Amino acid sequence: MDRAFKANLARLTAGITPAGLASVYFEWLVHLVLSPGKQLELGEKYTRKLTRFGQYLNRVAAGSGAAACIEPLEQDLRFSGEEWQRWPYNLIYQSFLLTQQWWHNATSEIDGLSPESERVVNFITRQILDRYSPSNSPWLNPEVVATTMATGGQNLVVGWQHFIEDWERAVSGKPPVGAEAFRVGKNLAVTPGKVVYRNHLIELIQYAPTTKRVYAEPVLIVPAWIMKFYILDLSPSQSLVKYLVDQGHTVFMISWRNPSSEDHDLGMEDYRRLGPMAALDAICAITGNHKVHGVGYCLGGTLLSIAAAAMARDGDERLASLTTLATQVDFTEAGELMLFIGESQVSYLENMMWDQGYLDGYQMAGAFQILRSNDLIWSRIVHDYLLGGRQPMNALMAWNADLTRMPYRMHSEYLRQLFLNNDLANGHYRVDGRPVVIQDIRAPLFVVSTTTDHVAPWKSVYKIHLLADTDEVTFVLTSGGHNAGIVSEPGHPGRRFRMSVPQHEKAYLDPETWLQITPEQDGSWWPAWHQWLAAHSTEQVPPPGMGSQQYPPLTDAPGSYVLAP
């Protein structure tokens, strides 16, 4: 009865536990009540802010071109337009920023409050304030007011039509407006290849060579099953797969099956065994080479790291190198996503997944949107519904709307063992009943992180230096976020990256020091990675056949699993 009740409640609360939030806010309030010094400090700050605002109001009334009494944060672009600098909107947004700053002080540095609880209270309070930002109000946003006056309110009519259209598509499970122009196998995921192996969980795609000779060691890419694989094979100009093939690499890609409620008992071990391990067996048989460059993206990188550690423990030396893209193996500082990970929250999600057998893609997408609500929620509401505009769809946005599901058992194990208990970094994660540790991996590592990653923050990814004991760790920090920073093809404007050389014999550098001393380079990190892969390959040979007698081609790429709803 409890499970069923909480499962139904979870659908109304977007999967966020009210019990967990209530307990954290109660803890904050009790510690604040028991901190009279903090209360006096907040009272003093309130008085000072009120005085500053009063002085600003006088300067504005005097018409002297008053400077703002508080500036938005660098990443806050809500009030950057010239219209916000005019009366009365300048007073409105300045008052809001002062209020927001006061609440930040009220939820920070409370004596006795745990850092985890402080982060949650601070984050949720910021989300509530962002909800009531004047930029989101049709009568307090000067751009919306001006557009409404100029169009006679047509922007609101069109915006309402956009809202109804988006709502109808959401409830019927249809993709967002414009996504129909992007079709897998037509203008997405079009790099030629064959599905050469299939089991219950994966299809293995082998891509056709475009060069007369290829590097002897093939490349296996393990994407995350939280996403469709073709983020790495978008349009031909944005395809990491095509880039590698054109440089003379034999590329294999795992395409994960989208699980249903019947797959609720699939666990992490099933994903390791039926995923990278089964793929390695097929690749070695097809190519005749017993060395493979392993590449893992996001959750796929974590799984491949687990597999690599187990292989190293068991004496399996088939990995020539290991590349991880936006991947964490230590989850103690996993960014704001950790705000949703606690015993109460995990138990709440388990009840919801138990009821339906999986975690739905829309439920996962909602959590990621909350992390960047100003960019992904409120700015869209203003642009699409209040101003009546439409942001043009692109390939990356269409891919992002192609959602997947996660089995109940696997997601529960992932949250508990990796996020909640941090078993992999602590040496407690078990494969075949025995612990595996990252320190056992001896293959050269190429680790890529991104500067504005909200899913795998780069300083968390950087912790590989504290865990790996291989002779070679090459670390790359590239501009962009979790997805756009990885899909960073040569010629993409504004791309930059930093890349370190192996530091095995030198003292450990903390991430801040590493950032200061590592020079920034213009352009994409892809060519640097290709050169690294080439340097860790043995020779160039004629391309292997597409499949083999043991693994005959089954169908053309991109296969059938990626097309299944």
What layout of secondary structure does this protein have?
Blueprint: H1 2-12, H2 18-33, H3 36-61, H4 89-106, H5 115-131, H6 142-151, H7 154-172, E1 193-198, E2 202-207, E3 214-215, E4 219-222, H8 240-246, E5 251-256, H9 268-287, E6 292-297, H10 299-313, E7 319-325, H11 343-356, E8 358-359, H12 361-371, H13 373-386, H14 395-400, E9 406-407, H15 408-420, H16 423-426, E10 430-431, E11 434-435, E12 445-450, H17 458-461, H18 464-467, E13 473-478, E14 496-499, H19 511-517, E15 520-522, H20 526-535, E16 540-541, E17 555-556
Can you give a write-up of this model?
This protein has 565 residues and is α/β, with parallel strands linked by helices. It contains 20 helices and 17 strands. Helix content is 44%, strand content 12%. Strand 6, helix 10 and strand 7 form a beta-alpha-beta unit. The chain is globular and about 85 Å long. The strands form four sheets. Strands 15-14-13-12-7-6-4-5-2-1-17 form an eleven-stranded mixed beta sheet, sandwiched between helices. Strands 3-16 form a two-stranded antiparallel ribbon. The two termini are 31 Å apart.
